[in-house]
Amino acid sequence: FKSSRQTQRSAPYLFRQSLLVGLTNPKMIIFLLALFPLFLNSEDAATPQLLLMTLTFMGLSFLSLSAFAYAAVRLASLIRNPSAITFINKLVAIIFFGFGCSLIYFGVIHLI
Question: What residues does each domain of the chain span?
Answer without folding.
Answer: 1-66, 75-112
